[in-house]
TrEMBL record:
PROSITE patterns listed in its UniProt record: FE2OG_OXY (PS51471)
Keyword presence, Secreted: no
Organism: Stephania cephalantha
UniProt keywords, alphabetically: Iron, Metal-binding, Oxidoreductase
UniProt protein name: Fe2OG dioxygenase domain-containing protein
Amino acid sequence: MNVLMRNKMTWVKSLVESTILTSIPSCYAYSTHPSHGGDATSTEVVDKDQRLIPTIDFSLLISGSPQQRSLCVQQLGDACRDWGFFYVTNHGVPQKVIQGILQACLSFFNMSEEDKKEFEGTHVMDPIRCGTSFNSSVENVLCWRDFLKVSVHPEFHFPHKPASFSDISLDYCKRVRGVALELIGGISESLGLEKDYIKKALEMESGLNSFIANFYPPCPQPKLAIGLPPHSDRGVLTLLVENQGGGLEIKHNGRWIQPCAPPNSFLVNVADHLEILSNGKYKSVVHRVAVNNKTTRISLAISHGPSAKNVIVPAQELLLKNNQLAAYWGMKYEEYFMLQQSNQLNGKSCLDRIRIG
């Protein structure tokens, strides 16, 4: 995409609303672009058998009997090892809170471009920024997606518009962080480590948590476009909610699986730094986002990561226990964060840069 086209680029929402589209501009056509080889929007069969995907009953992890909790920890480990993805039910975050935050995100995207421009940011590491695609400054093809990205921990930042958005988000982020840390504690135990091992090793008390709201409007040619191309997430765990299913697709054993979360549940995926810490036992899951031609999909992901200065390496305890050599080089989390955000999304390309051998 040339510089002139980038300079004229606008929000996808504005593009859709400004004209009656019957076809997408060529700069959004992923499946016809040679650099993507058709993988991002491949039309291979998507498995929709939801019974396959593991479900974790969070209430058993925090208040079940010793036997129930032990089984739940084992299920967490199995889900991380075999899938890198699972649902979490009975997590204690009220449905009205989840619906409230999704509605608040919609209200943000419905603001005028002039109002949103105030929060665009100028650098990929800015604590508040919004825009379109993923990183339009380097992408050959644009994603059919608008976004808001905010750093919400260890310091809470947030747009002051629309009214009450910040207050609603602060409450939501605190609740979700509590769920995430309990899950990470269970995952730590499933590896044979102390419950607080991951939390302490990655200095998650001061860990970077990112709030990422995604807006995917209807697309007239959904088979040509992509909401987000195949990629894995940075951090330890990502917890996601959405206003409707049918967009997220995860890759499992070479097949794309389209999850449809149970009511009032979180979709949780293993991210790159849990793969590093576990020395590859728990692998981050590659996922993508498809678009449709009928409805607007909104999703909200909160990424839970290590502290910025933490150098993440495989857990020495696991290497000794399993008589293994480290499979990943160490890198500061802030450097990894910058690497991912400054480039195009492309599978596990960031993680591949620090693999040994």
